[in-house]
Amino acid sequence: MVLNQATLKRDGVQDYVSLRTTALVITAYAIFIIGYFLCTPEVTFEAWQGLFSNLAMKGFTLITLVCIMVHTRIGLWQVLTDYVKNATLRAVLGFVLNLMAAAYVAIGLIVLWGV
Fold first, then answer.
1. Cα four-point dihedral sign 16, 22, 28, 33
2. What are 74-111's pLDDT values in tens digits?
3. Are 95 and 77 in contact (CB under 8 A)?
4. Which residues fall within 8 angstroms of residue 93, CB to CB, at 6 or more apart?
5. What is the pTM of this model?
């Protein structure tokens, strides 16, 4: 029995929807932060700490960090499969860059929940 390999992995429609959804979340977060800077006359450490001590802001930031990682993973897969033809090099680059994305989220969580 022959299996379609695409069914065992993600497909183009799922990537498309995931990229668009994560882009919307990242854009909403960026708009919120820009709005915060524009509406706050003086951004001090206390104001910034007050913003991020709110549980809703921590949740929004956590969701955004995960969306950044998903967006990065899909983008890296697309770029690496298009431009890196050597399978070994592509695998090593994919591993290192995805590890960096996961580390970015882990460090973000440590900083976020440390407030």
1. negative
2. 999 999 999 999 999 999 999 999 999 999 999 999 99
3. no
4. 80, 84
5. 0.82
